[in-house]
Amino acid sequence: MIHEIYKQLTNRLLVECRKFYGDRLVTVCVFGSVGRDTVNPESDIDVLIVARALPDGRMRRIREFQSIESRLKADIQAARKRGGFVEISPVIKSSEEVSQGSPLFLDMIDDGRLLYDKNGFFKEHLEAFKHRLLAQGAHRVHRGDSWYWVLKEPYTPGEEIRL
Length: 163
Description:
The chain is of the alpha+beta class.
């Protein structure tokens, strides 16, 4: 049941993102426990939104996103009544910012779930990022229910690692 709650809400999130951003929308990607499909009642919805013509600054983008969140208010309240914690944690980037890369994308290489990806933009960037990581010997290490990345082996202390 909890999986269905999050699935319904991510579907609604996509609908509202497409309405709000319109032609500016490039990518919507859920990651974290929702992307891995390992949700539990305390899971939030980590979502990367890539769009064009965004306002400058994180807080301005979050304020812009609040109009989407307000449209989802009834859905969020219904999900909470059905047993989900349900908070949306957006990361909002421009296409240019995605092209510059981010360590955050490590969480999305294997566990991101693309809900929308215009012309395969983000999929292409993730694949190129993964290729660069593998070329420098990076690999993901699982330990119990968690994991981390070893970015380069062998690593020499003081050596710069480029993602």
